[in-house]
Amino acid sequence: MSKVIHSKHFKHIILALLFLGWCLGNLDRFVINYAVVSISEDLGLSASSQGIILSSFFLGYAIMQIPGGALADRFGYRKVILFSLFSWSVFTMITGSAWSLVSLVLVRFLFGIGEGGFFPSGSKAIAVNYPVNQRSSAMSVMLASGAIMGVVTPIISGFALESIGWRTLFHIFGIIGLVITVLMFFFLKEPARIPAPSNISSPAPKKNASLKTVLKSPIIWGLFLSYFSIYAVNWGLSSWMPTYMVNVRGLNLKEMGMLSAIPGLIGIITMLLGGYLMDRIPAGKDRKISAVFGLIVAVALYLMSTAESIALFITYETIVRIAAGFVSTLIISKSVKSMPETVAATASGFVNTGAQLAGFLTPMLIGFLVDASGGSYNTAFIMLIGFAVICSISLLFNRRTQPALPAEPQTT
Q1: In order of start, what are the domains of the chain with their CATH numbers?
Q2: Are 246 and 252 in contact (CB under 8 A)?
Q3: Strand ranges, E, within 3-43
Q4: Which residue has the higher pLDDT, 386 or 151?
């Protein structure tokens, strides 16, 4: 067995780079939710077609979660992150040149494949560089990039889409991604490892032991279902709220962008706070507290659907974002705390596959429900409420029953 050596501030540099990279990833994936309004006008697309476009990314992204994690566990997180950044930046640029529904669906699917390796590799980097009792806090910092981009993206999109258009916007974001890829190439490193003394033998790793270890864990399957359910809510709202606020609530793009930023702004603080608290809540109580937050999500979604004013609507959406952010942080940080470092990326990738399958299915289902109901979003809200309840139940009964996990390598 080898042991990891790194400088005192090494882990903070790694986390800062992961945060930067995931800010870009969330920006690139979120902007389509706002651009799709303009894209649909230019290409004459229906609500069902919009749903297919929004879902195509998540199919590719979900497919790549487990392979991306396995590659990071085998070859190291740096190589996978660099490839992921470069490829998704290229496909972001190509999105701006799409000319039809088919071309958009194909490009967004390939974009998802490219980005799919980043999250499990980033989780691997956190597991390698941070002790168990600091991983929720570190993971919440990386996840906070999504909340930050939830604030930044609608503001940028609202103004940019009316001034430079969606094609130029995607071209610019792609170029920014290539610049960040170069930055990562020079500054993103893996800690050096020194071999164990020759007189100490260690068993040879079993082939495919990584994935088998993950699939035998009951808690991982429970987290998979919980993550699928809470992200059905997250991606359902993220993908359709811009269109809903314009078409149903009667807002223009700038008004929609400014108001959409409010829940995200508050979500940044609550997500970071959630990670801090998760490292300090006794084992067992975290799932009960998160189950309660899951029910809060369900109630707030119902109140959103019946809100008579835009002010009340945004207030209830903010409550949803706060509670859902807390639940999301618990689930994904628990995946890297419950499994040994050697399978951290695979475990994180498997659990995150649930979230991305939800991202694939939910926008498309909402599109079909809206078309089938003549433009009404009532059935869509009912579906999201159901997913929030499922998440709560799954967390409540998700007990750790697997045998003791192997010890992790020591770090210095």
Answers
A1: 11-189+210-396 (1.20.1250.20)
A2: yes
A3: 3-5
A4: 386
